[in-house]
Structures are given as C-alpha cells and as structure tokens.
Amino acid sequence: xLFDNHNRPITYLRLAVTDRCNLRCFYCMPEEGIQYVAxxxxxxxEEIERLVKAMASLGVSKVRITGGEPFVRTDLMKLLKAIxxxxxxxxxxxxxxxxxxxxxIPALKAMGIASVNLSLDTLNRERFAAITRRDxxxxxxxxxxxxxxxxIPVKLNAVVxxxxxxxxxxxxxxxxxxxxxxxRFIEEMPFNGDGSHYPRLVWNHTKILQVLKETFPNIHKKxxxxxxxxxxxxxxxHQGDIGIIAAYSRxxxxxxxxxxxxxxxxLKTCLYDxxxxxxxxxxxxxxxxxxxxxxxxxxxxxxxxxxxEAEKARGAALPIHESMSTxxx
Length: 329
Ligand code: SAM
Ligand code: SF4
Hints:
Layout: E1 12-16, H1 45-57, E2 62-66, H2 76-84, E3 91-96, H3 105-111, E4 115-119, H4 125-132, H5 137-149, E5 154-160, H6 169-178, E6 182-187, H7 205-215, E7 220-221, E8 230-234, E9 241-245, E10 258-261, E11 266-268, E12 277-278, H8 279-284, H9 289-300, H10 307-312, H11 324-327
Parallel strand pairs: 1-2, 1-10, 2-3, 3-4, 4-5, 5-6, 6-9
Antiparallel strand pairs: 7-8, 8-9, 10-11, 11-12
The chain binds S-adenosylmethionine and iron/sulfur cluster.
C-alpha cells in the first residue's frame, strides 16, 4: 500500500468514464453550450483497464465508476465486468443518476457490484424536473426500488440547495425508516461549469444537521468508517442511516484516501486541484508500465494537505469553471 506525503494511504480510485450526461442538473452542468470532450480524447476502455491494473499494483483496492452518466457510454457493463476481474480490486462501486440503470440491475447484481450510489435530490416530481431540467423522476424511482429488490446496497445522494430542495430534507431522511438505505445530504460545491458559487454556503453541514435534529429529535451520531467523507447519523427504529457530506466545508481531508481520474484521463489527487498529470497523454506517448508507475507514485507522494491548499494552488484556474460531470463527484 502506498502512503502519501501526509501519511494517508491511497486505496480508492474514482474514475469518470464519460463527461456526457442525459440530465442537466443545474448545480453540475449549464443547460446549453456544453463543450463535450471529443470521444477520441476520452480514455479508451483498454486505457482504463491498463490504468486500473497499474493503480491496483500500487495498492488501490476500491474503484468507483462515475461520470457524467456512466450508462450513456456504450458497453459500460463490459468495462465494469473487466474492472471487477482485475487482481487486487476488491470492490467496484457505481454512481449513477438512475435514468438508464434499471434494466442493468440483475446483471450488476450477478457480476458482484459492491454498491450503487443513486443521485436523487428530491422526492417531488416537479422539483426533480426543475433541478435536473428533465422529467425523469419516475425512471429514477423505479431504479431505486429495483436496487432494493435486488438487495444491492444503495445510497441516495442529495445535493442540498437553498430554495430548491431544502423542504425535502425531512421526507428524504424518513426514507431510512422502512428501507435499508443510506441517505446522504451533500453540500453544494463550486463545480457547476460556469464559474459561479456563493461566497458563503448557507446550507452547510451544520444547518443540514440542525434541520434533521428539529425533525428527528432522537437522531444520534454513529461511528464513521475509516476514510469516510460522510458524517453518519442514525434514527432509532430506522433501518437505514443518514450521512452529511461537508464537501464544500472540507472537514474530511485529513483522512482522504481517494484519487480521481477525469473522463479525459487527468489525474486529480484532490477534488479541488486543477489536475496533476495527464495519464492519457503519458500512455499515448508510449510510456512503459514501469515509467507509468513511477509517475503515479510521484503524484501520490506530492498531494496537497487539503482542499483549501489545492484550491489556492490553482492560481489562474480560479474561479473554478470545471463541471462535476468531467470530474465524477
Ligand atoms: N451522473 C451520475 C450521477 O449524477 O449520479 C454520476 C456523476 S455525478 C457528477 C456524481 C455526483 O456528484 C452526484 O451525486 C451529484 O449529485 C454530485 N454533484 C454534481 N455536481 C455537484 C456539485 N456542484 N456539488 C455537490 N455535488 C455535486
Ligand atoms: Fe448528469 Fe450527474 Fe451531473 Fe446530474 S449530477 S448533470 S446526472 S453528471
């Protein structure tokens, strides 16, 4: 296992397989004028497999496939199967918006997917359409129900947005009563593709917790698993649990074990950095496996201490104009 320059093990790779998406969540992508990465500039499946094998040999054992929407990329299931079979990879997880996911659920179960994170910001169909700019709530809900039926561990990810879905917090948390689901409330981050973000986040982790405490006075803190980004809570008598992810406040950097590879093959050793090397360009320049491992090791050993330091180091790349659809979340 490799440790970074802050003594944090690197064990978790989050890999965006495309920047394309069939929704237009306003906190992630602009409605129009998106410059998609040309297909030839995305990592190919062969390059992704080579990359995951290299990372596995350095101690990465957990992979999350994300995007854009992973299911808009052709033959995603083939890639998932190939990654699950890579030696050293113990867990493969998936993050999806759920629109195209349902029909693949039996096959996901059969191949041994470790869990699925389903993005759902509201339980109200109109609010869903307003947030995602598409009327696909019913498809996402059907995916949620099918994941439960197939006994695939499921987390619901809800980005909390002022004036958009804060009234949904109690009802979403209440889903944990009858379902063994983890409902996670996420602070909104600045990666919306247009370079704007509030200077101060109103709905931060403290305010989200306050609403949960007002609605469920018995809610209590649970121990957090190692390297968790979420702060976990339980409500007595509920099957599932609740997580609050301080993604903008960045309270969890001290135990961060994760690295990211964007859809175009850029390595990010912190969510807030501007990319530290192009794995795609290195591979396409004919870099040997040995040299690739050296480059990755060097990058892992030069990580920023936290997301604030990484953001500051972006310099000319501020304000952030990236979309979460290229980074993967
Ligand atoms: N399309 C898939 C989905 O929505 O689940 C996977 C990619 S999406 C970029 C991954 C996660 O990032 C989603 O849960 C989404 O809600 C979250 N996300 C996107 N933009 C965000 C932002 N500006 N702040 C916080 N979370 C964001
Ligand atoms: Fe698409 Fe996911 Fe971004 Fe929504 S959050 S626009 S579903 S990539």
